[in-house]
Design a protein that fits this description.
three-stranded mixed β-sheet, eight-stranded mixed β-sheet, globular
Length: about 210
Amino acid sequence: MIGIIDYDAGNIKSVEKALAYLGEETVVSRDPQVLLRADKVILPGVGSFGEAMENLHKYGLVPVIQDMIKKGTPFLGICLGLQLLFESSEETPGVEGLGILKGKILRIPPSPGLKIPHMGWNSLHLQNNGRLFKDIPEDTHVYFVHSYYLQAEDPQIVKAVTEYSTTIHASVEKDNVFACQFHPEKSSKYGLKILENFAKLEKEGN
């Protein structure tokens, strides 16, 4: 059973549908007990960093997320879900993120001919043997929608980068925590393969 955290952020339905297509059983919930029983958990999201953190606090989900990660449950952040795993974002200065991973969320710098938000398909450069990218070819194109990007503190956790005005850390992994800035659920067959790779992960320690 894969738990999908419901905290009033957009994009939950498309993640649920992609996992159903893969034959995975899911539950969309904000009930701590339901989420803590899940084998794996996904934090999806589209929206603003500050509002998302406010909702996670409002629904009492911050300690639940910390508990799940501590007990080794495979955890995947998607898009805004990736950004929330870090300490802070330029989008809402003064608002603390979950702080599970170290790094900065910065505004994509303006560049002639490039639109912000970055919306569309970009190729990934894979590095550091990411478990989510098993059987995914180099330069696979995936779908992005974002105005802010990750600069992770530890280069070893970065498993994929893309170029759009700057080098964007597109996916990270550390222990049982995984995150993608792009939307695997909207990224065609290879996006589904990334979700399938996540669904097949064993709990840390098994």
